What does this fold into?
Amino acid sequence: MSNIPSELKYATSHEWVRQEGNGVVTVGITEHAQELLGDMVFVELPDVDDEISTGDDVAVAESVKAASDIYAPVSGKVIEINEDLDDSPELVNSDAFGAGWLFKVQLDDASDLDALLDAEGYANSIDED
Amino acid sequence: MTNKTVLHAKHIEAGAKLVDFYGWEMPINYGSQIEEHHAVRTDAGMFDVSHMTIVDIKGNDAQAFLRRLVINDVAKLDVAGKALYTGMCNHEGGVIDDLIVYFFTTTDYRLVVNSATREKDLAWITEQSAEFDVTVTERPEFAMIAIQGPQAKAKVATLLNAEQLAAVDGMKPFFSAQAGDLFIATTGYTGENGYEIALPAEQAADLWQQLLDAGVQPCGLGARDTLRLEAGMNLYGLDMDESVSPLAANMAWTISWEPTDRNFIGREALTAQKAAGDQPKLVGLVFEEKGVLRSGLKVITPFGEGIITSGTFSPTLGHSIAMARVPRSVSLGDIVEVEMRKKLVNVKVIKAGFVRNGKKVF
It folds into this structure.
């Protein structure tokens, strides 16, 4: 069983969300997701200032095995992207919950977070996979 | 039913992620397939290839039988131990399998064929051998380990005894030697120097451990695929199968048309195809932007459509490469389009073969 930090929120499509305060969240993909995908070779991120809505395919994680869409777990405006992934996509493999983060979003509505899973809920959802 | 090689426990010990490979539970990687790939390009890696099928052909008619069975001409082999890459075709000229033939004497040969095609290959070989004075003997009691990379031979050498060292001393590529219990061949599927070693199954775990202790990186099927694709080597089932002519699979060089009276299986069909000149061809594709060319994607050319047969991210080059079957009129150097994730992207056509001995070759 892979690591699922309890302070994060999760989407069933394997994104994680960390609250940074002031309505800003950081988004990444879970350790479980990177294990399924294998070695990452490219990560395509949204552009800063993009307006994104929950469920939109906003990024692509391309591994040796497959290209996989990443969905927006929340709605809002992209305010920062992880440019280190351009040269080092393997950060998603080595540190999925840390240096392998994907982008930051200024939330339209903080109540979006209530719709996401907690660690236990996410752990149950991947058990059912 | 799932088959396991004799090295299965060693794979688990090394942290392998195992997958089903045509009925065999085999390592896909031992953590990172990209690191394994780099180990082979820069140092030394090893693969358990014990699932591959070894078939010995012996008897008075062994040479005559193989001159009928395979599209290359085994009569070209006149030095003991010499190996030959070729294919065997059906009567319609479709590739039943690709294989390596090792020559010992004109009455004694060894074939190594794919594991995924084992049953149909054995059935075909046995059926075709009926009119010849030969025995067809599968050798499942052998395990096989491929050790590949610029340091592979040096690392293996530290484990060999004097007799074995003498047997492999100065061995050229595509040769083999029986050295004590080890059948050592300078063949491989990576585009690097190295050995493929067949040995009695009960000795395989010890050799694997010794290689591990000598600093050889265990590598899984994931790295094996990116390495062979960089080397421009075909994978049966993807780049060709029974519906594909060797002329359309970059295997024309493995056909011996001379002498013209050698009646190999498929000759008539292949001769007609060659005369018609209408077979598609297998080329290499290069895509240097973000994104990975994948098997099954459509290739659009001014001469009609083609298809990617194998595609991957090349860890050595840092971008995507592929092999594709395209209309024969497409030329090397052309830019063609591939439909990738709902967009059309431009890719360059080159000769299939991207990396050899650690270096870009295009």
